[in-house]
Design goal:
single chain, alpha/beta, Rossmann fold, Four Helix Bundle (Hemerythrin (Met), subunit A), 4-stranded parallel β-sheet, 4-stranded antiparallel β-sheet, binds zinc ion, aminoacyl-trna synthetase, ATP-binding, nucleotide-binding
């Protein structure tokens, strides 16, 4: 059984997986490219999905596309609108452009696509319906300018995910603390007045929904009023997920989400990845540097999802070498007689996956298997391919590919074979070093020398 850290329960809990399991993932805001730090969060949901699917659990995943309403809380202009103007595109063009880029990046990282990927702008009616219900129940109130606020004091368990309970939230910590339209400083907008390209008619006046209410409305619509898992980046715990939980639970009349799961931050070169400081790496930067996109996935797997990790170009290059080496090995092993999987290794890897997605331990077990001369190559082949269903590193891509020696390497290999026959070990070592410089690794076996 998969056990995973539940942020609200503050402990690792077993995921009771039946035949089907539903998961909501807070999706991207599509007004710029997702950087690799953003993409790490989506690997968390992909791993969860793959580990559960291995047990034949049918996964139903909903991951929204935020193309309206995000990050306008500070009273400034919606970032989608501002960026569209800066790029000279319409809002719709801008949002589709970055949505397409996001889908391409996630595909390159082998992240399985969600079953539902609703765009916020196409589900405004659901949000209006939810807001109307909250107003009717007394969980939300309208103000004369056309805004609607959630009345947080009607939801006493607010703060259970992040620990930010209402009595400890100080008005000074909130930018809009002194907003006279609010009954209480921690209330937030469900609907904001506005006109123009990103606005809709609502019973309270023309405007657009707040970001938090988008996720409540779409998760309730696509997954129902009870679902098992909700994932997102650690920075979404507060206020986004607290607000989402309050809205959804108030509307449903019970706890909607069984487990809240969060992925930790990614640092790059020791610093937070942020556009404002120029410390941003995109997947296209990685591939432009000649690295496989799945080197990023490999680098992430070397750390557990809830561990803060520091990515560097060195760790990316090391991860790239490991991925390529494993693909070569798998291709070599594929030529050996078939053999059943190395079950003791499989069990240890799967136990690591189940133990709160302990991918670093799983990779250590695989490195041990790679070196274990007591396991037949055919068994290594079967085991690596089996485990790759969760790792998602495309370890079988090199199978059947012709191995091509660089120019001149064939002559050096022949010369080295002759040197070994003549027992001229100095020459053999020198030739091995020369070959290594060309990228050809020579090893000596009982049947003579072989190369990679
Ligand atoms: Zn969300």
């Amino acid at each position: 059984m998969l056990r995973i850290y539940d942020t609200r329960a503050r402990q690792v809990e077993e995921i009771a997986a039946g035949r089907a399991l539903r998961m909501y993932v807070c999706g991207p805001t599509v007004y710029r490219y997702a950087h690799v730090g953003n993409l790490r969060t989506y690997l968390l949901s992909d791993l969860t999905r793959r580990v559960l699917e291995r047990r034949r659990t049918r996964m139903l995943v909903c991951q929204n596309i935020t193309d309206v309403g995000h990050l306008a809380d500070d009273g400034g202009e919606d970032k989608v609108l501002a960026q569209a103007r800066a790029e000279g595109r319409s809002v719709a063009e801008l949002a589709r452009f970055y949505e397409d880029a996001f889908v391409r990046d996630t595909a390159a990282l082998n992240l399985r696509p969600p079953e539902h990927m609703p765009r916020a702008s196409e589900h405004i009616d659901l949000m209006i319906e939810l807001i109307a219900k909250l107003v009717e129940q007394g969980n939300a109130y309208t103000v004369p300018d056309g805004s609607v606020y959630f009345d947080v004091r009607t939801f006493p368990t607010y703060g259970e995910i992040s620990g930010n309970r209402l009595d400890s939230l100080k008005p000074a910590h909130r930018i809009d603390a002194v907003d006279p339209r609010k009954r209480f400083h921690a209330d937030w907008a469900l609907w904001k007045p506005g006109t123009g390209e990103l606005s809709w008619d609502a019973p309270w006046g023309q405007g657009f929904p707040g970001w938090h209410v988008e996720c409540s409305a779409m998760s309730l619509r696509f997954l129902g009023s009870r679902f098992e898992l909700h994932t997102g980046g650690i920075d979404l715990r507060f206020p986004h997920h607290e607000d989402e939980r309050a809205q959804s639970d108030a509307a449903a009349g019970h706890e909607v989400v069984r487990h809240w799961v969060h992925g930790e931050h990614l640092l790059f070169d020791g610093r937070k990845m942020a556009k404002s400081t120029g410390n941003v790496v995109l997947l296209s930067d990685v591939t432009s540097a000649g690295l496989d996109p799945l080197a990023v996935r490999m680098a992430f797997l070397e750390h557990r999802y809830r561990q803060q990790m520091n990515l560097t170009w060195d760790t990316l290059r090391a991860a790239d070498r490991t991925v390529r080496r494993w693909r070569t090995r798998v291709a070599e092993w594929s030529e050996s007689p078939s053999a059943p999987m190395a079950l003791d290794y499989v069990k240890r890897v799967e136990a690591a996956f189940d133990d709160d997605l302990d991918t670093p331990s799983a990779l250590r077990v695989l490195r041990e298997l790679e070196r274990d001369d007591g396991v037949a190559p055919g068994a290594k082949f079967e085991t690596f391919l089996h485990v790759d269903q969760v790792l998602g590193l495309d370890l079988s891509t090199d199978i059947g590919k012709a191995r091509v020696l660089p120019a001149g390497a064939g002559e050096l290999l022949e010369a080295r074979a002759r040197a070994r026959e003549a027992e001229d070990w100095t020459a053999a070592d020198r030739l091995r070093d020369e070959l290594a410089e060309m990228g050809v690794r020579v090893s000596d076996t009982a049947e003579g020398q072989s190369w990679q």
